[in-house]
Structures are given as C-alpha cells and as structure tokens.
Amino acid sequence: MPDVSRTEIGRRIFSLQKEKNVELAIEKIRQHLGSEWAGFSQTDLKVLKYMLGEVWVYLERDLWEKITFSSITRIDLLDILSLGRKSLAKEMSEPNAVEGVTAILLPVAKRIP
Predict the structure, then answer these.
(1) In which domain, by residue range, is 10 found?
(2) Comparing C-alpha atoms, which of 16, 19, 21, 34 is closest to residue 77?
(3) What's the N-to-C CA distance of the chain in angstroms?
(4) Is residue 18, in this structure, part of any structural domain at all?
C-alpha cells in the first residue's frame, strides 16, 4: 500500500464530507420540489452540486446545518443555477457567485418551517 501523507488523508476526508453534505442537501431540495424537480436537467444538477459544494467550503459548519434545504423554492433554485452558470462561464467570479448563493440560502436558514 503506498504511503499517503496525513495532509492527503485530510484532503480526502474533507472532500468526502463535502460531497456527503451536498448530496443530502440536494435530496432535501428534490423531495421538497416534488414533480417540479423533473424540470431540471443533469447539467442543472451538476451546476447545483458545484455551487452547493463551494458554499459548503465557504460557510461555517454550524451555519450550513441551520439551512433548511427543504424550504428552497423553485425560484431560489433557478437563482442558484443562474449564479452557478455565470461562475462556470467566467462571467462572474467564483467568490461573488458563492456570496450570491449564500445570500439566497441564508434567508432560508431563518424561515420558520
């Protein structure tokens, strides 16, 4: 078995935690949107995964945990996807896109279920 540095192990653990949290968030969004979810493409899903992953890296964990992903509306999702597309197309910087998505998600954290 090849030697793997502690740094590399830490990076892999971080990456797995990010992926797991993003997948859980997407599942909550999907369940909440129900039949509306079918209107989103695989490309949309990739953009959503990318943006939620970047936000997960950016936010403190306790704040991430307070976001009620099951309250995200179709309009919220369309706004997140728009910012993600702009970031990927280099029409907007990644930090600005992350801040925009965070602004969308943070009010969600404060909504009363």
Answers:
(1) 6-110
(2) 34
(3) 49
(4) yes
- Whether 1 maps to a domain, the answer reads no
| pLDDT one-digit tens code per residue, 55-96 | 999 999 999 999 999 999 999 999 999 999 999 999 999 999
Query: Measured between alpha carbons, how far is 38 from 20 in angstroms, rounded to an integer?
Result: 22
* Spatial CA neighbour of 53 closest among 95, 105, 15, 85: 15
In a domain, 10, yes or no: yes
Number of domains in the chain: 1
- Residue range 12-63, pLDDT digits in tens: 999 999 999 999 999 999 999 999 999 999 999 999 999 999 999 999 999 9
- Residue 95 domain-assigned? yes
